[in-house]
Amino acid sequence: MRLRTRCAAGILPVLVWMSGVSAQQKYDLLLKGGHVVDPRNKISAVRDIAIADGKVALVAAAIDPAAAFKVVDVSGHYVTPGLVDIHVHVYAGTGERDSYAGDNSVYPDGFTFRAGVTTVIDAGCAGWRNFEDFKQRIIDRSKTRVLALLNIVGHGMRGGKFEQDLADMDARPAAEMARRFKSVIVGIKTAHYAGPEWTPVERAVEAGTLANLPVMVDFGSNRSERPMSELVTRKLRPGDIYTHVYSGLRNEQDESGRVNPALLEARKRGVMFDVGHGGGSFLWRIAVPAVKAGFLPDSISTDLHTSSMNAGMKDLLNVMDKFLAMGLSIEDVMLRATWNPAREIRREELGHLSPGAVADIAVFRLEHGQFGFVDVYGARLRGTQKLSCELTVRAGKVVYDLNGMTRPDWDTLPRDYRQTGDARWDGVTPAPVSRSPR
Length: 438
Description:
Elements: E1 2-6, E2 13-17, H1 21-24, E3 27-38, E4 43-52, E5 55-60, E6 68-73, E7 78-81, E8 83-88, E9 117-127, H2 131-137, E10 145-151, H3 160-163, H4 171-180, E11 185-190, H5 199-211, E12 215-217, H6 228-235, E13 241-242, H7 261-269, E14 272-273, H8 284-292, H9 316-325, H10 330-335, H11 339-344, E15 361-374, E16 380-394, E17 397-401
Parallel strand pairs: 3-6, 3-7, 8-9, 9-10, 10-11, 11-12, 12-13, 13-14
Antiparallel strand pairs: 1-2, 3-4, 4-5, 7-15, 15-16, 16-17
């Protein structure tokens, strides 16, 4: 039996023998002609990417389309590693009101693939007491790769009466839970504390030390008894992460409008700085002067939750677009949304397109025009370009395709066509299709 397929340009038909497909076509999917941006491997050039068995098989200037089962022409697009969003809230489904272990969180799959995101890190919604429920409810059921920062609060991010309870901040059970689920717990989180004590930070760092994991800090209320400058220069360890760096809520900018010198000192010590845009933690009047002064974030992230996603922050691409509007290059922005966050959580198997790496890949169109980007207080910065996600591949399978670039035109198919996919490249097994003439 003969099977009709397509060449790289998606135009000229060629014939292959069904019995010879496995022998002749060693790649499942070939993305051809895109501008590959892979910061870890210092690639920013037109390249082809071949995928086999869910992994990147080859990145090269030209790969024979006859060697691939499915060829997709992505010329004129940027092709990058799947994006890694290091700060989200996705512990949804518990039914708990006004809680990030409940109604304030979102189900990840509805918000990730359409933005080119293949990996998210939940930022402390669960603590050691409820992590197993979070894992069963969300992590184990999501197509998105969901990793977690474990909250130092045993009950997690369930609101004030829990998050202000110093008695529920215990380093040892947190570290034990992190070691037990080391495949998915990638750090410790402390957040939202309003009191004058250093206890949440100190116990989070203790748990991180016991479990050999980084700590992410959302520093909560600004208190003179525990200044941000002391946090980043003395309390945090190299590799720990300060999120909401452009919020302006904790003296990230000094009285003269310059970057707080403590942040510069902390960066020299190896402390990492994350955007964590959210619904209240990104201001143009803080970010623009900092970026102009050369103080760039180590990672660009959303702080995605039910409030932030419909306000100044829309999705990860919107946050990345803001940095493009402030003058960063595509390469600069992609570094901070792929390889850098992967390194921050010590998952260096992610965030790049090296042969043998998992085939998490995103394809973007860079649009040019007149656009507006809004901070958390509603102030606008105008820009002339923005990214749109055309295609997302997760572990070698197409999981999002905005304009059907992987699909055949309907009028090239038999009259009674059914599903046109194939498990080798999109995870859908096609139903039998009649080969009768049209």
